[in-house]
Amino acid sequence: MSRYLVLGAAGLILAIVGASIFGFELWSKSDLSGRFVSTNDAQVVADLIQVGSINAGRIIDMNVDVGTSVMEGQVIATVDIPAVISRSEITDTSKMGFRDVQDQLTEVVAPRSGLIAARWVKKGDTVSAGQPIVTLMDQRKVWIEANIDEKKIGRVRRGQLVEIEITGRDGKLLGRVETVSPVTAATLRPEQSSSRNLRNVGQVVPVKITLDEDHLSLIPGSSAEITIWVR
Hints:
The protein is mainly β. It has two domains: 30-46 and 140-229, Efflux pump adaptor protein, beta barrel domain (Elongation Factor Tu (Ef-tu), domain 3); 47-139, CATH 2.40.50.100. The two termini are 51 Å apart. The chain contains two helices and 14 strands. A hairpin with a 6-residue loop joins strand 5 (83-87) and strand 6 (94-97). It has a six-stranded antiparallel beta barrel with strand order 1-10-13-12-11-14. The protein has a four-stranded antiparallel beta sheet with strand order 7-4-2-9, with no helix packed on it. A two-stranded antiparallel ribbon has the order 5-6.
């Protein structure tokens, strides 16, 4: 009988030890451990530049399309600037038009190297001054933006190591906390500035995370899950 009691006690001890180890592993992998802060409210963000003409006119040549790689200074489009083609002596008004002469043409060039992420006009379209013609993405300027619960943001500091998992991509990327916003995400949304709306919106603080290496294949807007090691 005593033998069965010993075996039973040993089994009970093993079960308790196993449960304790399992519980410790679960605890160590959760935010409750205090070792890290994590969130799946994160995404890939890129430096997007709106490129347009400083003069209003008509697009007479479009040299790029979505996905085209361009170098800094490369001509993206050529714009024909309207000029006075006649004047009424009766009403003292001018008639504007396009003369298709060289001195009325202006070139729109890429302000930096990158990839054309969007094209907003086509050949023959008229554009106003400053109207975007294309959106240029600088693939060297890609980072992660994560929203951290305000209750946890106090543990997040600049320079902390971050592990990043991108949806649809195998493996983990490494990065560092670059900046922590001084205000909540709700404060940055004017349409949600009323106190009633703020109570209904989860208070999160944006955090910018830079990657340790360039990853030119990352797609801006992709969802991400991040783990910030706070100690």
